[in-house]
Every structure is written in C-alpha cells, then in structure tokens.
Specification:
The strands form seven sheets. The protein has a five-stranded mixed β-sheet with strand order 13-14-16-15-17. A two-stranded antiparallel ribbon has the order 1-2. By secondary structure, the chain is mainly alpha-helical. Helix 7 runs parallel beside helix 12, helix 15 packs antiparallel against helix 16 and helix 32 packs across helix 33. Among the domains are: about 170 residues, Hect, E3 ligase catalytic domain fold (Alpha-Beta Complex); about 140 residues, Hect, E3 ligase catalytic fold, CATH 3.30.2410.10. It is elongated, with a radius of gyration of 44 Å. Helix content is about 60%, strand content about 5%. Pfam families: HECT, IQ. Its EC number is 2.3.2.26.
C-alpha cells in the first residue's frame, strides 16, 4: 500500500543529491579557473620578470658575447647586480650563453688596470661582501658543471672550455692578477683560497678528471697544451708545496700536527678578514649538506665509490687523495704533459708531488682504500703515472748531483774553505738521505700495487673465463683482453681502450736505465771495484754503472739511510753492512745483510712486474738484460755468498719461511728469468767465442748451482712435489737449467758430463723408491733426469718397455702376434697396408714376417725376430731415402721431413707410418742407422714447446748459408733497412716463387734495427718448424703411439739419437768377443776365431771395425750400453758351402768345422752375413792371411752381403 509513496520519496532525494553535486562541481570549476588564471598570470609575470632580468643583463654584459678586446667594462656593482639576479633564475637551456658572457667579463675585469673596475671591488664594499662571495661561489660551481658538459671535439666548445678553465684559474689565486695594494693582498689571497676550498668541496677534481678523460683518452689527444697546463695548475693549487716532517713518523702524530696547523691557519684568517672567514664557514657548511650533481654513464657509480674512498681518509689527507683519485689515475696524463708541456715537470718538482704521493701511498691502509676505489685498470694508470713521476724525480736528482749547484754563494764565500766543504758534504748527505728514503718508499708502493693488481686479476680469472656476474649492475661481464694484464673478467671502458698505449709507454720507464741504476744503486757497492772496472766492457755493464759503483765505494762514510729503514722495517738479525773484504777481489756478503736485502727488494719489484704485467714480461727482461749490467752483477753477488753461491744458507732460510716467496727467492727468480732470456737470444759466436756477458765457466757454475738447488728443493721437501710447477722458484730455476743443459748437449761448455750428476744421490735408494711409487723420485726423473747417469736411464727405459710388454701379455691368455706377408719388390707398400691400420697395442706385440721373393715364391725359414728386423731396417731405409721425397738430407747428412713432401701421394699417412716403424725399432731395442737432425728430434721430444726454445740455435745444422746470413744481419753495424728485407720468405716450388709471411702483413713490414732479432728468430722458426709443421706432426703422432712421450723426456737430443742409432764410441772388441755366439763348430778357442780376433785387434783400424759391424748388423755403431744388449746377439757360424747350398748346421758339418777336416782351403770364397740375425758366415780358412784379406775385401766392397 506504500509502494507509490516510496518511489516518489526516492526521486526527491535523488534530485537533491544531484543538485548538491552540481553546485560542488561548479565550485570546483570556479576554483580551478581561479587557479589556472593565477598560474597563467604568475607564469606571464615571471616570464616578464625573467625577461626583464635577462634584458637588463644583456644590456649591461652583451658586449662580452664574443671577443673582449676594446670592450668597456661596466660598473662592477652593476654587473654583479644584474648577474646575480640572472643566476637566481638560471636555466642552462636559455642562459648558458649568458654564463659564458659573464665568464668573459670576470676574466677581463680581473686584468683591468683600475682597481675600481675590477669585479673584486664588490668585496671591498661592506654592503655587498657576503653576497658577492656567495655569488662568485655559485659562478664557480656553474662553471664546473659547464666544463663537465663541454666537449673538445667541437672547436667552439673547445674555446669555451679554455674560457671556463681560465675563469677557475683566475678566481682561485691572485698570482695572475695585476699588482694589488699591499694591504689588500693578504685578505684577497685568503678569499681566493676560500674559493678554491669551495671548489674542491664541490667536485673540482672530478670535473678536471672528466675534462682529461674526454680530452686525452683517445688515440689523438684533443685537449690543447695551454688547457692541459691550466688543468694541471688547478689540480696542484690546493696541494701544499712541501711534505711535513710529521708524515715520516707515525700516523697519529701526523694527524695531530696537521690538525693543529689547520686550526692556526683558520684562526689567523678570521682575525685578518672576518667577513670572508664567516662566509667561508657558511659556504663550507652549505656545501657539505648538498649532494653532488649526478654524471652521465658510469659516473654515478664511480662518484659514489670515489667519495667513499676519499671520506675514509683524515681531513688533511683528502686533498692529496683526491689528486690521486682524479688526476694521477687518468691514463697517460703525465705522458701528455711531458709531450705537450715539458716545463710542467718543473712545477711538479716544486710542489714535491712525487714525494707527497709516495708518502701517502706508503701507508698500507691508505693504499688499500685507494686500490679498492680504483680497481685494477685505473690502479694500473695510477701506477704508470707514479712511475713517470719517479723517472722525472730521479732525472732531476741526477742532474742536481752532477751540476752541484750552490744556492748561497755569498755565505759560502764568507766561510773558510774547510767550512764550505763540510757544509756542502752535509747538504749532499741530507739530500742523499731524503732521496734514498723516497725511493725506498717508491719501491714498496710499486710492489704492493703490483701485488694487489695481480691478486685482483687472479680473482677475476678464477674458475672459468666465460661469464662473471656484476653485483652492481646485475649484468654478465665476459672476460676481456687487457693489453697489459691479459685476460680477466672486467670490461674496459672507452677511455682505457684508446689510451693504454700511453700507459704502456709510461710503464716502460720502470725498466729504463735511470730507474734501474737507482733501484739497484747499492748493488755495485757489494762487488769488488776493480772487478767492475775490468769486466765492465765484456759484461755489458755501462760506464754510468761503473761510475755509480765507484761513487758509492768511495763514500763509505756517508749515512746509509736505506739501511736504517731496513733495520727499522725488516728486523733482520745481524743487520748492518756484513760485507767484508779479504783481498782486493774477494768480497763476502751475507744473505741477511741489509744491503743485500735492498737488492732483493729491487729484484722483487721487477719479479712482481713480470708476474702482474705479464704481457710486458719480455720487454721487462730485455730492459734488465740490455739497459744495465744488473744481470751480471747479480751473478757476482750470488758468488759472493760463499760456496755454491751460498746455497746452504739460502735453503736454511727457505726452510724457515712459510712459503718460497721471500725477497731472496725473488732475487734468484729474477736472475734465472733474465739469464734465460739472455741465453736464448745469444748465438754461438756470442756465447762460445766472444763470451759476453758471461764466460763459459760462468755458465758452468750457474748450471752446477741450479742443478743442486733444484735437487735439494725436491729432496728436502721445500716444494710440493705434486704441484712442483706452481712454485715460481723451482719453475724459473728449472727453465734456466734446462736451457743450459740443451745448449751444452749441442755444444758442450761444462768441463765434464759428471757436472750434471749429484754426488749425494744414491742410485740404489733412488731406484727402490722409484719402484715403490715415491712421488719425489718420480718428479726428479721427470724434471731432472740428467742427475742420473745415462746408462741407468737407458736401463730404466728398457725396464719400462719390458713392464709394458708384460702387461700386454697378461691381458691375453694366449701369445699375441701379427703375421704379415711382404713382397720384397714392394716392401714399403705392403708394410704400410698391413701395419698402418693396426692399433698401437698390436704393433707393440710380436710381428712375424714372411717374405715373397722376386719369383713370387715364399722364402723358407722361420721368423724368430730376425726376419722382422730385416723388414724394419729395409722399410726405414727406403722411406727415409731422400729420393722418395718424404725426407731430406741436411748439409751435415742428417735427416728431416721434406717441406715438399706434399707432392707425394698420402705423404702424411706415410710419415705417420714411418714414425710408427721408428718407434717400433726403439721399442724393441733394434738399432737402425738413421741420423736425424737435432732440430727435428727436439720436436719429437717436445722441446720446441718451451717458451725459451730458440730456433736459431740449430739452424746451422739445416742451412749453414742461411744461418750465416742471419748472423750477419744480427751483427750488422749499419741501417738494416738499407738491406731491403721484409718479414716474408720466398721459395721456389715447381718453377714458381711462393711467398710466405713470417707474421701477418709481413710483406709490407720492413726489417729494422729494432726488430731484426724478431725477424731472425721468425725466419729460423719458419724454416725448421712452420714449413714442416704438418709433416712433423704426422711423424710424431705415429712415433708417440708406440713410445710413451714421458719415457723420451728422460733423454737429451744426442742421447735419443744414440738410442736410435747406437753409441758414438769406438767398438770395444773385448766386449764384442765376450758376447759373441758361435755355431757350425766354431768356438772361442777355435783357430779361425783366434785369428779373427787377433786380426781385428792388431791389423784392422777403427774405421774397419765399424765397417765389419755394419756388414754384419747393418749398423756401424755399437749398441747402447754394450753388445750385451744387441738383439739378436752377434754370432759367427762356420760354413762349408755357398749360401745357395747352405742348409744349416748338421752333425757332420759341426764336427768338420770343429776339427777343421774334410775340406780344402776355401780360398775362392768370401765371408757373408745375414743382417737379420746379426750373423757372420765365415769359411774355415786354412791361413790367417787368407782370412784377413778376404774379410777386409768383403767389408770394404760389401761383396757377399746378403739379406736372405
């Protein structure tokens, strides 16, 4: 009943609600309209106001929009007023050109002759002082921000960059201002200092760094010389000019002293110029509460990291830390300064920048914070610039000591001569002490920076080189190639990529002659003076080094500041100078002496440089070897330690250390690396004839020292035998030892081969431990096989072969052998077809051969290894024949793979087969007459894989003419470019000239005096390796499939040749007779046999002995270790009939041969031989003269030689 009323009431309520909403909407629209109108009116008013401000500014300062020549300066107060109003509403998009105008005005006004026309006149007004100071600070900050945005690539922006740099330069010092009244100079100086302080707090150094990165870090610098000089001046201006003496004491004292000095300075400033002091305090407070403007790219992250690093330092050290972080870390900045502004080095020296930087980085915590802030790549740039500073510092010091300036001539003239000399000596001593202390700290700083860079790179190389996740960016960073540090997982930014050439140039200064002589300055004082003088020329020691040695030797009374530092830092027992002389030439030094420790510290520096700057290792070694006499002097120093270079004391100190990384270890490692580099480059003329820089006796002594040291390091457990190559000391010593051993093997320089043996090594104990699997003996056999006599190593080789044969036999229940049928007319083809496809284990087992003669009939007989020996010898003889073109003969009649073997079908497969056959001969102990070239055998045993392998050493055995020509180029005194050589090699092949590049683009790369050593080694490497790489690889593959490469590592190249072809000694007839077997009735006391041995002993020459051995065994050399090891044994058989009628021994033939009855004298028959059985078939001659003549004729003409 109330339905209709309810509907009507709802309509009334809804209408009322809609009316209220409409009124509310109207009010909102009205309010919005008012708001919009107010905003528009405000916007229009502000635009009008700003336009008025800009118009006022333009009316006053628009004349400074370009050149300021002949421009009338406005009133300073007026200019300040319009500029301040403009800067309150500064918009970079619209007002940046006005900022440029104002900058030009400020620079021009500062050089106005009238004081009232200069802009600083505003500071003289009590009304405008504070506001003008704040205004100038704002201008300086805006100028810094503008500098960060400008680019040197655009010429117009380059001019603006110079303008704003000049503005910063003018407003932060009164030095360039025209003359000021004396009362105004102190307060205005403090005022500019306040501006400078404000700029430093507001990112002055990051701004300068950004300018340098954009202007210098590219292949061709864009920053002009004057602009670079301005940046340097601004960077140096906040820094103090001298190093406080407190900095050389403990850290707390230095901080207190600096804080007291700062407090005194601030107090004086406030008393002289209160308004400026108040504004400075206010400005500093405001600046500290403001945030730095964000940069572009990686600058935000970088700024945060740098700010953290800087804030970690005390307040008084933050200026220097900012200088290091933002100036000295710029890649190659000092190199550019040296190139563009050579006079800038004077400014650096006046500010004592090098001393300040070294003292700052000498603190362990400060250096750690600095490195963490910069990371490896930019820390490397800091290191390079520090090295450049050190180079300038040393050069300046050397110049000052040479010229001996006298700064106080009038006072000196007033003094007596004795007093003047005493004063001069005292000043020199103080200067020398300060110099030594600075260089000591420099050594420490460089070493620790290198260590940290190395650790950082190692951590980034850990695991795999695929990808490393960056926590900061969340991205994946793959390993990148660094031209100095190698591969590690850190991306190089554009600035580093384009400027690392300059950084590398600076790093080269570390091993320049001035720094080498300075860091090793104490080394000559530890050696006999007359020995230095006499050997300077022959050892490569320069005159400057000798003079330095004499200078230090004559100044023994001077204070040794470096030694006092070592006494304080190293806590070495028995410190002080332990150098003693027992005559004119004998000098005895102790390893623990302070002077020796200083030399070791210098060696440690260069060792760490080679480890960290691994891509520059060869350049560092070249500098050490050829720019100074350090290597030779280090050897003299090692000899002065006592017997065998003080090895006993060294090992005792090493045993006490936790790991072999002490300074003494670094000294020996550096000597080994440098000497190895030197010996690798030396040719035979220099090493054996000229004997520079070492004599052959020196090399012999070095070999003895290193041989004993490597043995004792292993024997005494001073290195981990399971990871022996992880020990840098053992690795370096072993590398040099191996190099000397190889050179000696090719051309001996040691007095006796017994030098390589270790007297204290007991062979019986060694072999027992080796059989028991002792790891130490196994490592010794692998790394130092020469300490074991050659005969014992051959027995070990044969024992290894026998053990492997036994192991193969145990795997099969029945004897395994392979039977092949070979036609004599195609022995190589059939042998290749049957044997090349067999697996290695089948080739190592017994192989039976049945020959088919020329008539197609199988030859009678049972192969008891003799027939296979015949097959093996004939096969090798044919495949090694140069006419087959698989191998060639050198000028010394030695074999090596033919470069033109590619013309032979299946040449690589045939070479692999040849390697297998030679390996089989070696495996079975069959001696074959195959003389191989030494350079080829070096590749067979893997010597060419060593970084110290030099191809030039053995080139004379391949091509004496080419070796002579290359040696001529090496010692050519004139300009090598006149010879018209390039890095290419031309050879004639099938009537065509084929050119080979020795390096990419070699045809266009001329050979010069600087790169001729590289050319010589590349040419030799091409001839002996590159040209026959594929052939050698195929041969080695086949050879090593039979003979374990580890077994070959026990032998040198000559020793391996002796195993293959027999011993290079005269035939021992007694040994041959003792191991000869007799058949057919012959015995050792038989008349014919007695005649035979008597003829060989008294009538035949050594050459005829070799001919007899070749006649019977097909090899003219005796087997290694004697005829006991000849397989089959040497045998002599009595024969009654010719070979065609010979049916072997019968009872009758044996009796007749034994009793010498039943036959006439066989004067018409000659001795014959079966080489497959090493059998001499000798008729039963009735006269001794007949035996002598017939045997001599047979062995000389091979008459009666038969192989069936």
């Amino acid at each position: 009943m109330f339905g209709g009323c309810s509907t009507g009431g709802d309509q009334v309520v809804s209408a009322a609600r809609e009316a209220r909403e409409e009124r509310a909407a109207a009010r909102r629209r009205e309010a919005a309209a008012v708001l919009l109108q107010a905003a528009v009116r405000g916007f229009v008013a502000r635009r009008k106001h700003f336009r008025n401000i800009r118009e006022q500014f333009d009316s006053v300062l628009s004349s400074f929009s370009s050149s300021t020549a002949d421009v009338v300066l406005p009133d300073p107060i007026t200019a300040f007023t319009v500029a301040a109003r403009m800067l309150r509403s500064y918009n970079p998009q619209h007002d940046q050109h006005r900022l440029h105008c104002y900058a030009r005005y400020l620079v021009s006004s500062l050089h106005s002759p009238g004081l009232q026309q200069r802009c600083m006149a505003c500071s003289l007004s009590q009304q405008h002082t504070l506001s003008w100071i704040q205004h100038i600070k704002q201008v300086l900050v805006l100028s810094c921000q503008t500098l960060q945005q400008l680019s040197c690539e655009v010429s117009s922006e380059g001019r603006l960059l110079s303008l704003h740099l000049q503005l910063l330069l003018e407003l932060t010092s009164t030095v360039t201002w025209p003359a000021l009244p004396a009362p105004l100079l102190p307060p205005l100086t403090r005022l500019t200092d306040n501006f400078l302080q404000h700029l430093v707090q507001r990112d002055l150094y990051p701004t300068l760094k950004r300018i340098l990165l954009k202007g210098l870090c590219r292949s061709k610098p864009l920053l002009s010389g004057p602009a670079l000089g301005t940046v340097l001046t601004l960077a140096l201006r906040p820094l103090p000019s001298t190093v406080s003496t407190a900095t050389f004491t403990d850290e707390d004292t230095a901080v207190k002293a600096a804080a007291a000095a700062a407090t005194t300075k601030v107090t004086k400033s406030r008393s002289l110029f209160p308004s400026v002091s108040q504004s400075a305090t206010k400005g500093t407070t405001n600046a500290s509460s403001q945030k730095a403007s964000p940069g572009c790219g990686r600058r935000g992250e970088e700024t945060g990291r740098v700010a953290t690093g800087v804030s970690a330092f005390p307040q008084e050290r933050q200026l220097l830390s900012q200088f290091l972080l933002h100036f000295l870390c710029v890649p190659g900045v000092l190199q550019h300064l040296t190139d563009m502004l050579p006079q800038s080095t004077v400014l650096l020296q006046k500010k004592n920048i090098f001393e300040q930087c070294v003292e700052f980085l000498y603190g362990e915590q400060r250096l750690r914070i600095m490195f963490h802030t910069l990371e490896a790549s930019y820390a490397l740039c800091l290191l390079a610039n520090t090295i450049h500073l050190a180079h300038h510092y040393v050069s300046a010091y050397n110049s000052s000591t040479t010229s001996h300036p006298c700064n106080n001539t009038s006072n000196t003239e007033a003094l007596s001569k004795a007093e003047a000399d005493a004063k001069t000596a005292q000043e020199e001593a103080q200067s020398k002490q300060a110099f030594d202390e600075t260089m000591f700290r420099f050594n420490s700083v460089v070493r620790r920076l290198l260590e940290k860079c190395g650790e950082y790179v190692s951590s980034k190389q850990g695991g795999s080189s695929s990808a490393v996740c960056s926590k900061s960016s969340g991205t994946t960073t793959s390993s990148q190639w660094h031209p100095v540090l190698g591969w590690f997982a850190q991306q190089l930014d554009q600035h580093l990529q384009e400027s690392l050439t300059y950084v590398t140039t600076q790093l080269y200064l570390l091993w320049s002659q001035p720094l080498l002589n300075t860091l090793f300055s104490v080394l000559p004082t530890l050696l006999p003076h007359h020995e230095l003088t006499n050997k300077a020329e022959t050892s490569g020691v320069g005159a400057q080094t000798v003079a330095s040695a004499a200078h230090f030797s004559d100044s023994g009374s001077r204070p040794w500041s470096i030694r006092r530092i070592f006494d304080r830092k190293l806590s070495i027992t028995g410190g002080g100078n332990s150098m003693g002389r027992t005559g004119d030439s004998v000098v005895s030094n102790k390893l623990s002496s302070v002077a020796v420790q200083q030399v070791a510290a210098a060696c440690s520096l260069y060792y760490l440089a080679m480890q960290t700057l691994n891509q520059l290792k060869m350049d560092i070694l070249t500098g050490l070897c050829y720019k100074s006499g350090v290597v030779v002097q280090l050897w003299w120093l090692l000899q002065s330690f006592g017997s065998n270079c003080g090895l006993k004391n060294f090992l005792e100190r090493l045993a006490q250390a936790s790991k072999p990384t002490s300074l003494e270890c670094h000294m020996i490692i550096l000597f080994c690396d440098a000497t190895a580099h030197l010996v690798t480059v030396l040719d035979d003329l220099e090493l054996y004839e000229q004997q520079k820089p070492f004599t052959t006796n020196d090399y012999s002594m070095v070999a003895i020292f290193l041989n004993t040291m490597c043995y004792r390091l292993l024997d005494q457990g001073l290195v981990d035998s399971r990871h022996v190559w992880a020990c840098p000391l053992f690795s370096a010593a072993h590398s040099l030892l191996s190099l000397l051993f190889r050179r000696n093997s090719r051309r001996p320089f040691v007095p006796s081969e017994k030098v390589w043996l270790i007297p204290e090594l007991k062979l019986s104990t060694f072999k027992d431990n080796l059989m028991n699997g002792n790891i130490v003996e196994q490592v010794m056999l692998q790394t130092l096989p020469h300490i074991i006599p050659h005969e014992e190593r051959v027995l070990l080789f044969r024992a290894n072969v026998a053990a492997q044969k036994a192991s193969l036999e145990q795997r099969s229940s029945t004897p395994q052998f392979t039977m092949i049928t070979v036609f004599r007319t195609r022995m190589v083809e059939d042998g290749y077809r049957h044997l090349n496809s067999l697996p290695p284990n089948a080739l190592k087992n017994t192989i039976r051969v049945k020959f088919v003669n020329e008539q197609g009939l199988e030859e009678a007989g049972i192969d008891q290894d003799g027939v296979f020996k015949e097959f093996l010898e004939e096969t090798l003889k044919r495949v090694l024949d140069p006419s087959l073109n698989l191998f060639k003969m050198s000028s010394e009649n030695q074999l090596y793979p033919s470069p033109s073997s590619v013309l032979t079908e299946n040449h690589l497969e045939l070479l692999e087969f040849t390697g297998k056959m030679l390996g089989k001969a070696l495996y079975d102990g069959i001696v074959v007459d195959c003389p191989f070239s030494g350079f080829f055998l070096s590749q067979v045993i893997g010597e060419q894989q060593s970084a110290l392998y030099s191809s030039i050493d053995q080139l004379s055995s391949l091509d004496p003419e080419l070796y002579k020509n290359l040696t001529y180029i090496k010692h050519y005194d004139g300009n090598v470019e006149d010879l018209g050589l390039t890095f290419s090699y031309d050879e004639e092949r099938l009537g065509e000239v084929v050119s080979h590049d020795l390096r990419p683009g070699g045809k266009l790369l001329p050979v010069t005096n600087d790169n001729r050593i590289i050319y010589i080694h590349l040419m030799a490497h091409f001839k002996m390796h590159t040209q026959i790489r594929d052939q050698t690889k195929a041969f080695v593959k086949g050879f090593r499939s039979i003979v374990n490469p580890e077994w070959l590592a026990m032998f040198s190249i000559p020793e391996l040749q002796r195993i293959i072809s027999g011993d290079n000694v005269e035939i021992n007839l007694k040994d041959l007779r003792r191991h000869t077997h007799y058949y057919g009735g012959f015995h050792d006391s038989h008349r014919v046999i007695s005649w035979l041995w008597d003829i060989l002993d008294k009538d035949f020459t050594s050459d005829e002995h070799s001919k007899l051995l070749k006649f019977v065994t097909s090899c003219s050399k005796p087997p290694l270790l004697g005829f006991e090891h000849l397989e089959p044994p040497f045998s002599i058989r009595c024969v009654e009939v010719g070979d065609d009628e010979d049916t072997g021994d019968t009872v009758g033939s044996v009796v007749r041969g034994f009793l010498a009855v039943g036959r006439k004298d066989p004067i018409h028959r000659l001795p014959t031989a079966s080489t497959c059985f090493n059998l001499l078939k000798l008729p039963n001659y009735q006269k001794k003269s007949t035996l002598k003549n017939k045997l001599r004729y047979a062995i000389s003409s091979n008459t009666g030689f038969e192989l069936s």
